[in-house]
């Protein structure tokens, strides 16, 4: 070994001895345990992102022996907009506007009156589907619903199963509303990007 090679050898030995316990590598190790970039192939995300349009009807049933929508908090005193009231829902989602038409899932979550000036609901719900390959997958909606407007738009903030990494929006249009019972049927059109 020439003296130059010998020096290089020692130089690398010095470098490797020095880098292993250095703070940079221990930081790398710590962040590796907590977070690391991964190849999207590992999550099967090599397929092109799809855009899908789902259409179904959401039934808010307050009347009868088996309501799907139950008031769990009353409105604050004297509120004309039901401000403060909260309904927990497990509302059927059907293909057609009739409750007897095919059930494709349930809307599970709650809506709360969040406006003192008008009827403005905060919607927080998961569309839990049971139809076909979407059985077991869900879309999460979190948004503002000024319920008396013709079309209300709410963001899709995510999803599970086939809706991992989902984003998009839902448009709600009231199909029918019974002022006596409070029962409502609302058409939902959901536009969602997913894999
Ligand atoms: C509600 O309205 C009644 C009747 O107008 C009034 O007497 C009462 O003070 C009001 N309550 C609140 C909390 O504003
Ligand atoms: C959906 O999946 C569940 C659990 O895997 C199963 O029990 C149920 O029969 C399925 N429903 C439909 C409509 O396929």
Textual characterization of the structure:
The chain is mainly β and about 200 residues long. It folds into two domains: about 5-35; about 50-195, AOC barrel-like. About 15% of the residues lie in helices and about 45% in strands. The chain has two helices and nine strands; from the N terminus they run H-H-E-E-E-E-E-E-E-E-E. It has helices at about 5-20, 25-35, and strands at about 50-60, 70-75, 85-95, 105-115, 120-130, 140-145, 150-160, 165-175, 185-195. It has an eight-stranded antiparallel β-barrel. Residues about 10-25 have low confidence and may be disordered. Bound molecules: 2-acetamido-2-deoxy-beta-D-glucopyranose (2 copies). The site of one 2-acetamido-2-deoxy-beta-D-glucopyranose (NAG) has 3 residues, from loops.
């Amino acid at each position: 070994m020439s003296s130059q090679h010998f020096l290089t050898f020692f130089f690398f030995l010095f470098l490797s001895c020095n880098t292993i316990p250095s703070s940079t590598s221990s930081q790398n190790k710590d962040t590796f345990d907590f977070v690391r970039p991964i190849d999207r192939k590992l999550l099967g995300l090599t397929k092109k992102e799809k855009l899908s349009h789902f259409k179904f009807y959401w039934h808010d049933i307050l009347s009868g022996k088996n309501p799907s929508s139950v008031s769990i908090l009353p409105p604050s005193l004297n509120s004309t907009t039901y401000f403060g009231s909260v309904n927990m829902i497990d509302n059927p989602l059907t293909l057609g506007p009739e409750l007897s038409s095919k059930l494709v899932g349930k809307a599970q979550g709650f809506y709360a009156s969040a406006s003192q000036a008008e009827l403005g609901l905060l919607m927080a719900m998961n569309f839990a589907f049971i139809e076909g390959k979407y059985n077991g997958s869900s879309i999460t909606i979190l948004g503002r619903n000024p319920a008396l407007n013709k079309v209300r738009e709410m963001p899709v903030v995510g999803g599970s199963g086939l809706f991992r990494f989902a984003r998009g929006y839902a448009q709600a249009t009231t199909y029918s509303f019974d002022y006596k019972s409070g029962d409502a049927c609302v058409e939902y059109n959901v536009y969602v990007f997913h894999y």
